[in-house]
Please model this.
Amino acid sequence: MKYDVVIGCEVHVQLLTETKAFCSCRNTFGGEPNTRLCPVCTGLPGALPVANQTLVEYAVLAGLAMNCTIVPVTKFDRKNYIYPDMPKGYQISQFDMPICEKGFLEIDTDGGLKKIRIIRIHMEEDAGKNIHTEDRSGLSHVDLNRAGTPLLEIVSEPDIRSPDDAVAYVQSIKHIMEYLKISDCNMEEGSLRCDANINLWVYEGDKKYATPIVEIKNMNSFKAMKAALEYEILRQKEEWTTKRLLLKDVGKVTRGYQEKTQSTILQRHKEESAEYRYFPEPDLKPILIDPAWVESMKSRLPELPAQKRKRFAEEWGLPELDIGKLLVDAELAHYFEAACKEYKGEPKKVANWVITEIGNMLNKESITIIQFREKVPPESLGELLNRIDSGVISGKMAKGIFSDMWAEGKTPEQIINEKGLKQIDDQESLKDIVREVLDQNPKTVEDYKNGKENVLSFLMGQVMKATRGKANPRLSQDLLKELLQK
Amino acid sequence: MIDDKTLDEILFLGRLDVSREEKEKFKDQVGKILDYFDLLKQYDTTGVDPDLGEGLKPSVLREDKSKVTFNESDIETFAVDFKRGFFTVPRIVEDFLENRDEDE
Ligand SMILES: [Zn+2]
Model:
Protein backbone atom coordinates (compact mmCIF):
# COMPACT_ATOMS: atom_id res chain seq x y z
CA MET A 1 0.00 0.00 0.00
CA LYS A 2 1.48 3.28 -1.14
CA TYR A 3 0.35 6.30 0.85
CA ASP A 4 1.26 9.64 2.40
CA VAL A 5 0.36 10.70 5.92
CA VAL A 6 -1.24 14.16 6.01
CA ILE A 7 -1.34 16.00 9.33
CA GLY A 8 -2.39 19.50 10.31
CA CYS A 9 -2.29 20.81 13.88
CA GLU A 10 -4.41 23.20 15.92
CA VAL A 11 -2.37 24.32 18.90
CA HIS A 12 -3.81 26.29 21.81
CA VAL A 13 -1.46 28.12 24.15
CA GLN A 14 -2.46 29.91 27.33
CA LEU A 15 -0.77 33.28 27.63
CA LEU A 16 1.12 34.48 30.69
CA THR A 17 -0.71 37.76 31.04
CA GLU A 18 -1.39 39.21 34.47
CA THR A 19 -5.13 39.31 33.86
CA LYS A 20 -7.74 37.43 31.85
CA ALA A 21 -8.55 38.24 28.23
CA PHE A 22 -11.59 40.48 28.74
CA CYS A 23 -11.72 41.29 32.47
CA SER A 24 -9.32 42.27 35.26
CA CYS A 25 -9.39 38.96 37.12
CA ARG A 26 -5.98 37.48 37.79
CA ASN A 27 -4.76 34.87 35.29
CA THR A 28 -2.86 32.11 37.07
CA PHE A 29 -2.94 28.34 37.21
CA GLY A 30 -4.65 26.31 39.95
CA GLY A 31 -5.58 27.74 43.34
CA GLU A 32 -8.85 27.46 45.23
CA PRO A 33 -11.81 27.02 42.85
CA ASN A 34 -13.85 30.06 41.81
CA THR A 35 -11.62 32.62 43.48
CA ARG A 36 -10.79 34.66 40.38
CA LEU A 37 -14.19 35.67 39.06
CA CYS A 38 -16.06 38.85 38.21
CA PRO A 39 -19.29 39.81 36.44
CA VAL A 40 -17.60 39.57 33.01
CA CYS A 41 -16.12 36.07 33.23
CA THR A 42 -19.19 34.66 34.97
CA GLY A 43 -21.39 36.08 32.21
CA LEU A 44 -23.63 38.26 34.36
CA PRO A 45 -26.14 40.32 32.36
CA GLY A 46 -24.92 43.76 31.42
CA ALA A 47 -21.25 43.10 32.13
CA LEU A 48 -19.07 44.32 29.27
CA PRO A 49 -15.76 42.83 28.14
CA VAL A 50 -12.71 45.01 27.42
CA ALA A 51 -9.79 43.40 25.58
CA ASN A 52 -6.46 43.11 27.39
CA GLN A 53 -3.74 45.06 25.58
CA THR A 54 -1.11 42.49 26.55
CA LEU A 55 -3.19 39.81 24.80
CA VAL A 56 -2.97 41.81 21.58
CA GLU A 57 0.76 42.44 22.09
CA TYR A 58 1.50 38.78 22.70
CA ALA A 59 -0.54 37.75 19.65
CA VAL A 60 1.50 40.15 17.53
CA LEU A 61 4.80 38.90 19.00
CA ALA A 62 3.79 35.29 18.33
CA GLY A 63 2.71 36.19 14.80
CA LEU A 64 5.99 37.96 14.04
CA ALA A 65 8.01 35.09 15.51
CA MET A 66 6.13 32.68 13.23
CA ASN A 67 6.63 34.80 10.12
CA CYS A 68 2.97 35.84 9.86
CA THR A 69 1.35 38.90 8.36
CA ILE A 70 -0.21 41.06 11.07
CA VAL A 71 -3.52 42.39 9.76
CA PRO A 72 -4.36 46.12 10.04
CA VAL A 73 -7.91 45.47 11.32
CA THR A 74 -8.99 42.54 13.42
CA LYS A 75 -12.20 41.77 15.28
CA PHE A 76 -13.68 39.35 17.77
CA ASP A 77 -16.58 36.99 17.13
CA ARG A 78 -18.91 34.94 19.29
CA LYS A 79 -18.75 31.18 18.99
CA ASN A 80 -21.99 29.93 20.46
CA TYR A 81 -22.34 26.73 22.39
CA ILE A 82 -24.12 25.60 25.51
CA TYR A 83 -22.02 24.02 28.22
CA PRO A 84 -21.69 24.88 31.91
CA ASP A 85 -17.98 25.72 31.60
CA MET A 86 -18.90 28.77 29.48
CA PRO A 87 -21.59 30.64 31.41
CA LYS A 88 -22.13 33.30 28.74
CA GLY A 89 -23.32 30.65 26.28
CA TYR A 90 -20.57 31.65 23.86
CA GLN A 91 -16.83 31.90 23.65
CA ILE A 92 -15.24 35.13 22.46
CA SER A 93 -13.00 34.06 19.60
CA GLN A 94 -12.03 35.25 16.13
CA PHE A 95 -13.68 33.85 13.02
CA ASP A 96 -12.97 35.52 9.70
CA MET A 97 -10.52 38.27 10.65
CA PRO A 98 -7.79 36.63 12.77
CA ILE A 99 -4.99 38.89 13.97
CA CYS A 100 -2.20 36.93 12.21
CA GLU A 101 -2.24 35.17 8.85
CA LYS A 102 -0.03 33.23 6.46
CA GLY A 103 3.10 32.39 8.42
CA PHE A 104 5.45 29.45 8.56
CA LEU A 105 7.80 27.60 10.85
CA GLU A 106 10.89 25.61 10.01
CA ILE A 107 11.16 22.43 12.00
CA ASP A 108 14.23 20.36 12.65
CA THR A 109 13.63 16.77 11.50
CA ASP A 110 15.73 13.73 10.69
CA GLY A 111 15.38 14.71 7.06
CA GLY A 112 16.73 18.24 7.69
CA LEU A 113 14.79 21.48 8.04
CA LYS A 114 11.16 21.33 6.88
CA LYS A 115 8.82 24.26 6.33
CA ILE A 116 5.33 24.03 7.86
CA ARG A 117 2.95 26.76 6.75
CA ILE A 118 0.71 28.43 9.30
CA ILE A 119 -2.77 29.42 8.14
CA ARG A 120 -3.65 31.73 11.02
CA ILE A 121 -3.18 32.65 14.65
CA HIS A 122 -6.18 34.00 16.49
CA MET A 123 -7.03 35.24 19.97
CA GLU A 124 -9.73 33.69 22.12
CA GLU A 125 -10.72 32.95 25.69
CA ASP A 126 -10.50 29.64 27.51
CA ALA A 127 -13.47 27.92 29.16
CA GLY A 128 -13.81 26.93 32.82
CA LYS A 129 -13.49 23.38 34.07
CA ASN A 130 -16.21 20.82 34.73
CA ILE A 131 -15.49 18.33 37.43
CA HIS A 132 -17.56 15.21 36.97
CA THR A 133 -18.50 13.57 40.21
CA GLU A 134 -18.96 9.84 40.45
CA ASP A 135 -21.26 10.04 43.48
CA ARG A 136 -25.03 9.57 43.46
CA SER A 137 -25.81 13.29 43.65
CA GLY A 138 -26.35 13.50 39.90
CA LEU A 139 -24.40 16.77 39.92
CA SER A 140 -21.30 18.13 38.24
CA HIS A 141 -19.07 20.83 39.74
CA VAL A 142 -17.90 23.85 37.81
CA ASP A 143 -14.76 25.90 38.49
CA LEU A 144 -14.69 29.10 36.45
CA ASN A 145 -11.18 30.28 37.40
CA ARG A 146 -9.90 29.35 33.95
CA ALA A 147 -12.87 30.93 32.16
CA GLY A 148 -11.61 33.95 30.25
CA THR A 149 -7.92 32.96 30.27
CA PRO A 150 -6.33 34.37 27.11
CA LEU A 151 -5.41 31.83 24.44
CA LEU A 152 -3.78 31.87 21.06
CA GLU A 153 -4.91 29.25 18.58
CA ILE A 154 -2.29 28.46 15.96
CA VAL A 155 -3.57 26.57 12.92
CA SER A 156 -1.17 24.91 10.49
CA GLU A 157 -1.67 23.85 6.90
CA PRO A 158 -1.74 20.05 6.50
CA ASP A 159 1.98 20.12 5.68
CA ILE A 160 3.12 17.60 8.28
CA ARG A 161 3.98 14.13 6.98
CA SER A 162 4.74 11.98 10.05
CA PRO A 163 3.97 11.71 13.78
CA ASP A 164 7.60 12.61 14.57
CA ASP A 165 7.35 15.76 12.47
CA ALA A 166 4.07 16.66 14.21
CA VAL A 167 5.81 16.41 17.57
CA ALA A 168 8.74 18.46 16.25
CA TYR A 169 6.30 21.11 14.99
CA VAL A 170 4.50 21.46 18.33
CA GLN A 171 7.83 21.42 20.19
CA SER A 172 9.03 24.19 17.93
CA ILE A 173 5.95 26.28 18.86
CA LYS A 174 6.64 25.53 22.51
CA HIS A 175 10.24 26.73 22.14
CA ILE A 176 9.19 29.94 20.44
CA MET A 177 6.59 30.67 23.15
CA GLU A 178 9.22 30.04 25.81
CA TYR A 179 11.77 32.23 24.05
CA LEU A 180 9.15 34.99 23.83
CA LYS A 181 8.25 34.32 27.48
CA ILE A 182 4.54 34.60 26.61
CA SER A 183 3.48 31.08 27.65
CA ASP A 184 4.97 28.36 29.77
CA CYS A 185 3.51 25.69 27.46
CA ASN A 186 3.07 23.01 30.07
CA MET A 187 1.15 20.18 28.39
CA GLU A 188 0.38 18.43 31.68
CA GLU A 189 -1.17 21.59 33.16
CA GLY A 190 -2.94 22.25 29.88
CA SER A 191 -1.25 25.54 29.02
CA LEU A 192 -0.36 23.97 25.66
CA ARG A 193 -3.00 21.81 24.00
CA CYS A 194 -2.88 20.28 20.59
CA ASP A 195 -5.53 18.75 18.35
CA ALA A 196 -4.36 17.07 15.17
CA ASN A 197 -6.19 16.46 11.91
CA ILE A 198 -4.90 13.40 10.15
CA ASN A 199 -5.76 11.37 7.07
CA LEU A 200 -4.02 9.36 4.39
CA TRP A 201 -3.53 9.96 0.70
CA VAL A 202 -3.58 6.48 -0.79
CA TYR A 203 -2.02 5.98 -4.24
CA GLU A 204 -3.35 3.24 -6.50
CA GLY A 205 -2.03 3.31 -10.03
CA ASP A 206 -2.26 6.92 -11.10
CA LYS A 207 -5.18 7.62 -8.74
CA LYS A 208 -4.99 9.37 -5.39
CA TYR A 209 -7.64 8.74 -2.71
CA ALA A 210 -8.07 10.80 0.47
CA THR A 211 -9.34 8.91 3.51
CA PRO A 212 -11.74 10.67 5.95
CA ILE A 213 -10.07 13.31 8.12
CA VAL A 214 -9.93 12.45 11.79
CA GLU A 215 -9.51 15.16 14.38
CA ILE A 216 -7.72 13.69 17.39
CA LYS A 217 -8.34 15.30 20.76
CA ASN A 218 -7.12 14.69 24.28
CA MET A 219 -3.40 14.29 23.62
CA ASN A 220 -1.84 15.46 26.88
CA SER A 221 1.85 14.95 26.22
CA PHE A 222 4.26 14.70 23.32
CA LYS A 223 4.43 10.97 23.97
CA ALA A 224 0.64 10.71 23.78
CA MET A 225 0.65 12.74 20.59
CA LYS A 226 3.09 10.42 18.87
CA ALA A 227 1.25 7.31 20.08
CA ALA A 228 -2.16 8.68 19.03
CA LEU A 229 -0.99 9.59 15.52
CA GLU A 230 0.81 6.29 15.04
CA TYR A 231 -2.28 4.39 16.15
CA GLU A 232 -4.46 6.44 13.84
CA ILE A 233 -2.26 5.72 10.79
CA LEU A 234 -2.61 1.99 11.41
CA ARG A 235 -6.34 2.30 11.99
CA GLN A 236 -6.90 4.32 8.83
CA LYS A 237 -4.82 1.88 6.76
CA GLU A 238 -6.93 -0.97 8.10
CA GLU A 239 -10.15 0.99 7.49
CA TRP A 240 -9.09 1.77 3.94
CA THR A 241 -8.36 -1.88 3.22
CA THR A 242 -11.64 -3.14 4.64
CA LYS A 243 -14.11 -0.33 3.99
CA ARG A 244 -12.52 2.02 1.43
CA LEU A 245 -14.13 5.07 3.06
CA LEU A 246 -13.45 8.36 1.31
CA LEU A 247 -13.10 11.88 2.66
CA LYS A 248 -15.66 13.22 0.20
CA ASP A 249 -18.32 10.77 1.48
CA VAL A 250 -17.64 10.76 5.20
CA GLY A 251 -16.06 14.18 5.84
CA LYS A 252 -14.47 14.74 9.18
CA VAL A 253 -14.91 12.84 12.46
CA THR A 254 -13.56 13.40 15.94
CA ARG A 255 -11.76 10.73 17.92
CA GLY A 256 -10.37 11.02 21.46
CA TYR A 257 -7.03 9.58 22.51
CA GLN A 258 -7.08 7.20 25.46
CA GLU A 259 -3.92 6.87 27.46
CA LYS A 260 -4.85 3.47 28.90
CA THR A 261 -5.25 1.67 25.60
CA GLN A 262 -3.00 3.99 23.57
CA SER A 263 -5.74 4.13 20.97
CA THR A 264 -8.37 6.57 19.75
CA ILE A 265 -12.13 6.18 20.09
CA LEU A 266 -14.95 7.78 18.16
CA GLN A 267 -16.56 10.89 19.61
CA ARG A 268 -19.61 12.85 18.55
CA HIS A 269 -19.71 14.09 15.00
CA LYS A 270 -17.66 17.22 14.51
CA GLU A 271 -19.68 20.42 14.73
CA GLU A 272 -19.56 22.41 11.57
CA SER A 273 -18.86 26.09 11.93
CA ALA A 274 -22.49 26.89 11.02
CA GLU A 275 -23.60 25.15 14.19
CA TYR A 276 -21.54 27.54 16.27
CA ARG A 277 -23.44 30.45 14.70
CA TYR A 278 -20.42 32.73 14.65
CA PHE A 279 -21.21 36.42 14.51
CA PRO A 280 -19.20 39.59 15.26
CA GLU A 281 -18.95 40.28 18.99
CA PRO A 282 -21.11 43.39 19.41
CA ASP A 283 -19.56 44.30 22.79
CA LEU A 284 -16.04 44.70 21.40
CA LYS A 285 -15.03 47.08 18.66
CA PRO A 286 -12.69 45.99 15.90
CA ILE A 287 -9.06 46.63 16.80
CA LEU A 288 -7.03 48.82 14.46
CA ILE A 289 -3.42 47.78 14.41
CA ASP A 290 -0.96 50.51 13.50
CA PRO A 291 1.75 49.16 11.16
CA ALA A 292 4.27 51.48 12.85
CA TRP A 293 3.48 49.85 16.18
CA VAL A 294 3.96 46.41 14.62
CA GLU A 295 7.37 47.60 13.37
CA SER A 296 8.28 48.69 16.88
CA MET A 297 7.20 45.31 18.22
CA LYS A 298 9.81 43.68 15.99
CA SER A 299 12.50 45.24 18.16
CA ARG A 300 10.99 43.46 21.15
CA LEU A 301 11.54 40.05 19.58
CA PRO A 302 14.34 38.15 21.26
CA GLU A 303 16.74 36.03 19.25
CA LEU A 304 14.57 33.08 18.18
CA PRO A 305 15.59 29.43 17.92
CA ALA A 306 16.06 29.55 14.13
CA GLN A 307 18.36 32.59 14.34
CA LYS A 308 20.20 31.18 17.32
CA ARG A 309 20.80 27.95 15.45
CA LYS A 310 22.50 29.83 12.65
CA ARG A 311 24.59 31.97 14.98
CA PHE A 312 25.70 29.05 17.17
CA ALA A 313 27.07 27.31 14.10
CA GLU A 314 28.91 30.42 12.92
CA GLU A 315 30.07 31.89 16.20
CA TRP A 316 30.81 28.80 18.27
CA GLY A 317 31.48 26.30 15.49
CA LEU A 318 29.31 23.66 17.11
CA PRO A 319 27.94 20.59 15.30
CA GLU A 320 24.19 20.55 14.39
CA LEU A 321 23.40 17.86 16.94
CA ASP A 322 24.87 19.81 19.85
CA ILE A 323 23.12 22.98 18.78
CA GLY A 324 19.77 21.17 18.69
CA LYS A 325 20.28 19.94 22.23
CA LEU A 326 21.32 23.35 23.58
CA LEU A 327 18.43 25.19 21.92
CA VAL A 328 15.78 22.98 23.49
CA ASP A 329 15.77 25.51 26.31
CA ALA A 330 16.63 29.19 25.85
CA GLU A 331 18.08 29.26 29.37
CA LEU A 332 20.33 26.30 28.63
CA ALA A 333 21.62 28.02 25.50
CA HIS A 334 22.23 31.15 27.56
CA TYR A 335 24.09 29.16 30.22
CA PHE A 336 26.33 27.69 27.53
CA GLU A 337 27.21 31.10 26.14
CA ALA A 338 27.91 32.56 29.58
CA ALA A 339 30.21 29.64 30.44
CA CYS A 340 32.06 30.13 27.13
CA LYS A 341 32.87 33.71 28.13
CA GLU A 342 34.77 32.42 31.17
CA TYR A 343 36.37 29.41 29.52
CA LYS A 344 39.52 29.93 27.47
CA GLY A 345 39.43 26.69 25.48
CA GLU A 346 37.21 25.19 22.79
CA PRO A 347 33.45 25.95 23.00
CA LYS A 348 32.77 22.34 22.00
CA LYS A 349 34.11 21.24 25.39
CA VAL A 350 31.65 23.55 27.18
CA ALA A 351 28.84 22.19 24.99
CA ASN A 352 29.75 18.62 25.97
CA TRP A 353 29.64 19.48 29.65
CA VAL A 354 26.38 21.41 29.40
CA ILE A 355 24.67 18.69 27.36
CA THR A 356 25.98 15.64 29.19
CA GLU A 357 26.95 16.53 32.75
CA ILE A 358 24.43 19.30 33.37
CA GLY A 359 21.77 17.47 31.34
CA ASN A 360 22.18 14.38 33.53
CA MET A 361 22.15 16.47 36.67
CA LEU A 362 18.90 18.22 35.71
CA ASN A 363 17.28 14.85 35.03
CA LYS A 364 18.57 13.21 38.16
CA GLU A 365 17.57 16.08 40.44
CA SER A 366 14.38 17.00 38.53
CA ILE A 367 15.38 20.65 38.43
CA THR A 368 15.43 23.35 35.78
CA ILE A 369 18.56 25.03 34.48
CA ILE A 370 17.43 28.19 36.27
CA GLN A 371 17.43 26.35 39.61
CA PHE A 372 20.77 24.77 38.75
CA ARG A 373 22.48 28.04 37.91
CA GLU A 374 21.52 29.54 41.26
CA LYS A 375 24.01 27.15 42.85
CA VAL A 376 26.38 26.64 39.94
CA PRO A 377 26.69 29.82 37.89
CA PRO A 378 28.06 29.43 34.35
CA GLU A 379 31.30 31.17 35.36
CA SER A 380 31.98 28.31 37.76
CA LEU A 381 31.70 25.77 34.98
CA GLY A 382 34.07 27.84 32.84
CA GLU A 383 36.51 28.05 35.73
CA LEU A 384 36.33 24.29 36.33
CA LEU A 385 37.16 23.59 32.70
CA ASN A 386 40.03 26.11 32.76
CA ARG A 387 41.49 24.16 35.66
CA ILE A 388 41.43 20.92 33.69
CA ASP A 389 43.26 22.60 30.83
CA SER A 390 45.90 24.10 33.08
CA GLY A 391 46.50 20.66 34.61
CA VAL A 392 45.40 21.52 38.14
CA ILE A 393 42.84 18.72 38.07
CA SER A 394 42.15 15.75 35.80
CA GLY A 395 38.96 15.35 33.79
CA LYS A 396 37.88 12.60 36.13
CA MET A 397 38.45 14.73 39.22
CA ALA A 398 36.50 17.52 37.56
CA LYS A 399 33.39 15.35 37.47
CA GLY A 400 33.59 14.75 41.20
CA ILE A 401 34.17 18.44 41.88
CA PHE A 402 31.24 19.27 39.63
CA SER A 403 28.89 17.13 41.76
CA ASP A 404 30.17 18.86 44.88
CA MET A 405 29.69 22.28 43.29
CA TRP A 406 26.00 21.46 42.91
CA ALA A 407 25.65 19.74 46.29
CA GLU A 408 27.46 22.44 48.27
CA GLY A 409 26.97 25.51 46.12
CA LYS A 410 30.71 26.31 46.16
CA THR A 411 33.16 27.43 43.51
CA PRO A 412 35.61 24.92 42.00
CA GLU A 413 38.47 26.71 43.75
CA GLN A 414 36.83 26.40 47.19
CA ILE A 415 36.28 22.68 46.72
CA ILE A 416 39.76 21.99 45.36
CA ASN A 417 41.34 23.81 48.29
CA GLU A 418 39.09 22.38 50.99
CA LYS A 419 39.44 18.80 49.87
CA GLY A 420 43.07 18.96 48.88
CA LEU A 421 42.07 17.79 45.44
CA LYS A 422 44.87 19.48 43.60
CA GLN A 423 46.30 17.25 40.93
CA ILE A 424 49.79 15.94 41.72
CA ASP A 425 51.88 17.35 38.94
CA ASP A 426 55.06 17.89 40.83
CA GLN A 427 57.62 15.75 39.02
CA GLU A 428 59.60 14.66 42.07
CA SER A 429 56.75 13.51 44.31
CA LEU A 430 55.06 11.75 41.40
CA LYS A 431 58.32 10.01 40.54
CA ASP A 432 58.43 8.55 44.07
CA ILE A 433 54.92 7.19 43.72
CA VAL A 434 55.58 5.67 40.28
CA ARG A 435 58.75 4.05 41.59
CA GLU A 436 56.81 2.53 44.48
CA VAL A 437 54.17 1.12 42.10
CA LEU A 438 56.87 -0.47 39.92
CA ASP A 439 58.54 -1.99 43.01
CA GLN A 440 55.25 -3.57 44.05
CA ASN A 441 54.62 -5.12 40.63
CA PRO A 442 57.87 -6.77 39.53
CA LYS A 443 56.07 -9.34 37.36
CA THR A 444 54.23 -6.72 35.38
CA VAL A 445 57.45 -4.80 34.88
CA GLU A 446 58.97 -8.03 33.55
CA ASP A 447 56.04 -8.45 31.13
CA TYR A 448 56.50 -4.94 29.86
CA LYS A 449 60.15 -5.48 29.21
CA ASN A 450 59.25 -8.64 27.29
CA GLY A 451 57.21 -6.53 24.90
CA LYS A 452 53.76 -6.61 26.53
CA GLU A 453 53.23 -2.86 26.28
CA ASN A 454 49.54 -3.05 27.08
CA VAL A 455 50.31 -3.61 30.77
CA LEU A 456 51.00 0.12 30.87
CA SER A 457 47.35 0.87 31.47
CA PHE A 458 47.32 -1.51 34.44
CA LEU A 459 50.27 0.34 35.91
CA MET A 460 48.57 3.68 35.23
CA GLY A 461 45.58 2.41 37.16
CA GLN A 462 47.83 1.52 40.08
CA VAL A 463 49.32 5.02 40.10
CA MET A 464 45.83 6.52 40.10
CA LYS A 465 44.79 4.20 42.90
CA ALA A 466 47.82 5.18 44.97
CA THR A 467 47.04 8.88 44.52
CA ARG A 468 43.27 8.51 44.75
CA GLY A 469 42.96 9.76 41.20
CA LYS A 470 44.97 12.92 41.74
CA ALA A 471 48.03 12.08 39.63
CA ASN A 472 48.42 14.15 36.50
CA PRO A 473 47.68 11.47 33.86
CA ARG A 474 50.01 12.75 31.14
CA LEU A 475 52.93 13.22 33.49
CA SER A 476 52.34 9.82 35.13
CA GLN A 477 52.41 8.10 31.76
CA ASP A 478 55.65 9.84 30.80
CA LEU A 479 57.26 8.93 34.13
CA LEU A 480 56.12 5.30 33.87
CA LYS A 481 57.66 4.95 30.41
CA GLU A 482 60.80 6.71 31.52
CA LEU A 483 61.36 4.53 34.61
CA LEU A 484 60.44 1.31 32.76
CA GLN A 485 63.19 1.98 30.21
CA LYS A 486 65.76 1.75 32.97
CA MET B 1 -40.00 32.63 1.20
CA ILE B 2 -37.85 29.81 2.47
CA ASP B 3 -38.14 26.07 1.96
CA ASP B 4 -38.73 23.45 4.64
CA LYS B 5 -35.15 22.23 4.56
CA THR B 6 -33.72 25.67 5.36
CA LEU B 7 -36.25 26.18 8.13
CA ASP B 8 -35.37 22.77 9.60
CA GLU B 9 -31.71 23.76 9.63
CA ILE B 10 -32.47 27.03 11.37
CA LEU B 11 -34.59 25.25 13.99
CA PHE B 12 -31.79 22.73 14.55
CA LEU B 13 -29.19 25.45 15.01
CA GLY B 14 -31.49 27.22 17.45
CA ARG B 15 -32.12 23.93 19.26
CA LEU B 16 -35.87 24.56 18.85
CA ASP B 17 -38.56 21.92 18.74
CA VAL B 18 -41.81 23.25 17.26
CA SER B 19 -45.13 21.79 16.18
CA ARG B 20 -46.10 21.41 12.55
CA GLU B 21 -48.54 24.29 12.96
CA GLU B 22 -45.89 26.60 14.42
CA LYS B 23 -43.53 25.60 11.68
CA GLU B 24 -45.85 27.04 9.03
CA LYS B 25 -46.14 30.25 11.04
CA PHE B 26 -42.36 30.56 11.43
CA LYS B 27 -41.79 29.77 7.79
CA ASP B 28 -43.89 32.74 6.90
CA GLN B 29 -42.25 35.03 9.50
CA VAL B 30 -38.67 34.04 8.78
CA GLY B 31 -39.42 34.39 5.08
CA LYS B 32 -40.51 38.00 5.66
CA ILE B 33 -37.33 38.76 7.58
CA LEU B 34 -35.20 37.32 4.80
CA ASP B 35 -37.16 39.29 2.22
CA TYR B 36 -36.30 42.42 4.14
CA PHE B 37 -32.61 41.59 3.91
CA ASP B 38 -33.07 41.27 0.16
CA LEU B 39 -34.36 44.82 0.21
CA LEU B 40 -31.31 46.00 2.18
CA LYS B 41 -29.05 44.23 -0.26
CA GLN B 42 -30.25 46.54 -3.04
CA TYR B 43 -28.39 49.48 -1.53
CA ASP B 44 -24.97 50.15 -2.94
CA THR B 45 -22.45 49.65 -0.14
CA THR B 46 -19.27 49.59 -2.20
CA GLY B 47 -16.46 51.27 -0.30
CA VAL B 48 -18.15 50.84 3.05
CA ASP B 49 -16.25 48.51 5.36
CA PRO B 50 -18.87 46.30 7.02
CA ASP B 51 -16.92 46.13 10.27
CA LEU B 52 -16.29 49.83 10.64
CA GLY B 53 -19.21 51.93 11.70
CA GLU B 54 -19.35 55.64 11.17
CA GLY B 55 -17.11 57.68 13.44
CA LEU B 56 -15.27 54.65 14.79
CA LYS B 57 -12.71 55.60 17.38
CA PRO B 58 -9.65 53.41 17.82
CA SER B 59 -10.55 50.40 19.89
CA VAL B 60 -9.90 50.90 23.57
CA LEU B 61 -7.73 48.26 25.16
CA ARG B 62 -7.37 47.61 28.85
CA GLU B 63 -4.15 47.82 30.79
CA ASP B 64 -3.07 44.37 32.01
CA LYS B 65 -3.44 45.12 35.75
CA SER B 66 -5.45 42.87 38.03
CA LYS B 67 -8.20 44.08 40.33
CA VAL B 68 -9.84 42.49 43.33
CA THR B 69 -12.77 40.44 42.16
CA PHE B 70 -15.68 38.46 43.64
CA ASN B 71 -15.52 36.86 47.03
CA GLU B 72 -17.55 33.82 47.92
CA SER B 73 -20.50 35.73 49.35
CA ASP B 74 -20.75 37.78 46.14
CA ILE B 75 -21.07 34.60 44.15
CA GLU B 76 -23.74 33.23 46.49
CA THR B 77 -25.94 36.22 45.73
CA PHE B 78 -26.33 35.25 42.08
CA ALA B 79 -25.47 31.58 41.75
CA VAL B 80 -28.40 29.22 41.64
CA ASP B 81 -26.45 26.54 43.45
CA PHE B 82 -23.00 27.23 44.92
CA LYS B 83 -21.60 24.68 47.35
CA ARG B 84 -18.16 24.34 48.91
CA GLY B 85 -16.49 26.55 46.37
CA PHE B 86 -18.16 25.09 43.29
CA PHE B 87 -21.08 25.93 41.08
CA THR B 88 -23.17 22.79 40.85
CA VAL B 89 -25.07 21.82 37.73
CA PRO B 90 -26.90 18.69 36.56
CA ARG B 91 -24.33 16.03 35.75
CA ILE B 92 -22.66 16.38 32.39
CA VAL B 93 -21.65 13.19 30.69
CA GLU B 94 -18.62 13.60 28.47
CA ASP B 95 -19.17 12.67 24.87
CA PHE B 96 -16.55 10.02 24.84
CA LEU B 97 -18.07 8.27 27.84
CA GLU B 98 -21.46 8.39 26.22
CA ASN B 99 -20.23 7.04 22.92
CA ARG B 100 -17.83 4.50 24.27
CA ASP B 101 -19.78 1.50 22.94
CA GLU B 102 -20.47 2.88 19.53
CA ASP B 103 -16.96 2.39 18.30
CA GLU B 104 -16.14 -0.67 16.22
ZN1 LIG C 1 -13.34 38.17 35.49
Observations:
- Chain B is about 40% helix and 5% strand.
- Residues 4-42 of chain B form one domain.
